[in-house]
Amino acid sequence: MKAGVLTFPGSNCDRDLAQGFKLAGADVEMVWHKETSLPSGLDVIGIPGGFSFGDYLRCGAIAARSPICAAVVEFAKGGGHVIGICNGFQVLCETGLLPGALMRNAGLTFVCRQQQLVVDSTDSPYTSGFDKGARITVPIAHHDGNYSADEDLVARLRGEGRVAFSYADNPNGSAGDIAGVLSENRRVLGMMPHPERAVEAAHGNRDGAAVFASLMDAMATA
Amino acid sequence: MKAKVHVMLKTGVLDPQGEAVRHALGTLGFDGVEGVRQGKVIELDLADGTSEADVTEMCEKLLANTVIERYSIEMVGA
pTM for the complete prediction? Predict the structure, then answer.
């Protein structure tokens, strides 16, 4: 599996995300935001956490209009796999690849803690290695993670099994306790929690490793 | 020529920041405030020949996230 990890000015989880892919056995190529095309042969693109372009205008808004993101949208629309974590989730919503939007946390404070999640859907290349309904612990660290979606959208996402992860106890006011969302074809995942910060013993737990391992399996059998 | 773009959250989208401002006003003794919505104003200096339609396109493509926000455009001067 070959993964491309994007870097924007202000990204700060790009190397952690690369490490998550590498520990699962993937080759990783870093991709600078000014590139207009993706490296050849990519199986998956990772959009990392951080504060791309200083969160100016709206979180992820400027990154979503960067040259490389045009290529990412094309890649996704052609059936490519894309995972966006934290700021990457915000970028994916801003591109329109995922529905909804991420707003300021309901409590208005930056939330940084170990967060318990429920694995809601195992029907995706990112979550097939989990047990459905499993409770896992993954760090969160964000100020704008309040997933905004109307009741119809929440019901549709739930009905279609497109809520990958939910918060066990909602830290930010997200509609429907939603922590991670899949695209219609289930190949694009956006999530606020950081699975790449829970992949080695030194992190305290390895609950996030199954995201990357699931992806490896999916690519091996594809 | 200038354009002023007003961006506000759509009706029905909760605005935690506006709510915090309302609460703070209440703390200061302003009891008459029943709701606060916070938005932003973006001022554009435009070259001659830039039309309101161009600004609309800017709003749709970048300045507003139409999933949660609505916008209005005010063309100023000539």
Answer: 0.95
